[in-house]
Design goal:
Blueprint (H helix, E strand, L loop, with lengths): L8 E7 L16 E2 L4 E3 L2 E9 L8 E11 L2 E5 L6 H9 E8 L8 E8 L8 E9 L1 E18 L7 E7 L4 E2 L9 E2 L12 E7 L18 E9 L3 E3 L10 E3 L4 E9 L5 H7 L15 E15 L2 E21 L8 E8 L12 E6 L4 E3 L2 E2 L4 E2 L3
Antiparallel strand pairs: 1-2, 1-9, 3-6, 4-5, 6-11, 7-8, 8-22, 9-10, 10-11, 10-12, 10-15, 13-25, 14-19, 15-18, 16-17, 18-21, 19-20, 20-21, 20-22, 23-24
Length: 380
């Protein structure tokens, strides 16, 4: 007997069709197959013990199923045009796309800017996950809403994204539920650690000034993380079909952390006093420290003789530095760790507490509810 390889697993994400009451709950074919590194269905069936006295030694009369739920998670490297934009769009809910014209040496590219939906309306997805062994069988996680997305960006490791959804308990498809994906040529490789730059512009004395990338680059960042949390709570109503649930979208939270080598600028002094230098840089300030924060991966590749610019960028316009502490003992290299909370308190640089920008050679969206991924060739 020969066991099958876990490498044969696949996953796809499709936008639920909200335009028709008769088809919106059908098994939507994926708009994109994600080249994931990890998938976890996180299926759970809760039971209640039926207890009663029968005159015998046990009270256990059986187990009754009370709830079935799932929280599927997709983890991957940051790969433009291969599911990355989809996961961000599902998390934030709003996207605008513009064309960046090329020339004789540069390919025309498309830039997507994704921001939180102001009304808290998020796209609803169907997620497929299966085992591709001779026939294509799959599990279909219906009515999935993105709950939390976390980006991990370090100086020596490739950046990653992990998105967790709240969905109904999966539907088990038959052998014809999904078609094995194939992928087109010239897809950009996953972004590399060396392409990362991080910028921070502190709002000294409350003065809101845009980031100047030539002057505001953070020296020697080693680790960072940004998380977007929609705080979704699943609940059921009387009469709801077993395995289904309501998804209540609550307040949006954006948090993060950074670790840097202790080099030129005294970030700990800035956090405590609100100033790097001067008379006000000695005593702790009663005012919180805010600033503009940007994480940026910028690179390119060549396709048929033309340069294709690539961009992934996270902007937090009102980042509150909620903590900054440096190492104070030991013989290791001195570091400083910072905690970040996105805020709307200043309000003068826009209402979006986070904006994520991507740029590559392929379009993402062709309509309000239609996604386009011409890099993935879906067999008929």
């Amino acid at each position: 007997m020969v066991s099958k390889s876990n490498a044969l697993h696949f996953a796809g994400v499709g936008l639920r069709d909200e335009t028709s009451e008769t088809t919106k709950d059908s098994n939507t074919f994926p708009a994109v197959f994600v080249k994931f590194t990890e998938f976890a269905g996180n299926k759970e069936i809760e039971t209640e013990t039926d207890e009663g006295h029968t005159g015998r030694r046990t009270l256990n009369l059986g187990e009754n199923r009370s709830k079935a739920s799932a929280s599927p998670e997709i983890t991957d490297n940051l790969r433009l045009n291969q599911g990355l934009e989809d996961l961000i769009y599902y998390t934030l809910g709003t996207m605008t796309e513009t064309t960046v014209a090329g020339d004789d040496s540069t390919e025309t590219t498309y830039k997507q800017e994704m921001t939180p939906n102001v009304n808290g309306n998020l796209p609803v997805a169907h997620i497929l996950h299966g085992f591709n062994d001779n026939v294509q069988g799959c599990r279909i996680y219906k009515n999935a809403v993105a709950n939390e997305t976390t980006f991990t960006m370090n100086s020596e490791e490739k950046p990653t994204i992990k998105t967790s959804f709240v969905s109904d308990y999966p539907y088990y498809g038959d052998d014809s539920s999904v078609v094995s994906p194939t992928f087109g040529a010239y897809l950009p490789k996953a972004l590399k650690a060396g392409a990362l730059s991080v910028f921070f512009k502190p709002y000294i004395d409350g003065a809101v000034v845009p980031i100047d990338e030539s002057a505001d680059k953070i020296d020697c960042l080693t680790e960072s993380e940004v998380s977007i949390n929609n705080n979704i709570e699943a609940s059921t109503c009387a009469g709801t079909e077993f395995g289904e649930s309501n998804k209540d979208i609550k307040n949006l939270e954006v948090t993060g952390n950074m670790t840097l080598r202790y080099v030129d600028k005294d970030i700990e002094r800035l956090f405590s006093t609100g100033h790097y230098t001067g008379d006000d840089s000695h005593k702790v300030s009663e005012n919180s420290l805010y600033g503009a924060l940007r994480f940026k991966y910028q690179t390119s590749y060549v396709n048929e003789g033309k340069t294709v610019p690539l961009l992934f960028q996270i902007d937090i316009p009102n980042a509150c530095i909620s903590n900054a502490e440096s190492s104070e003992s030991g013989d290791d290299v001195k570091t400083i760790s910072m905690e970040i909370t996105a805020s709307e308190e200043l309000g003068t640089v826009g209402n979006d507490i986070i904006k994520i920008t991507t740029q590559s050679a392929l379009k993402f969206k062709t309509g309000d509810n239609v996604t386009e991924h011409i890099c993935q060739e879906m067999p008929a």
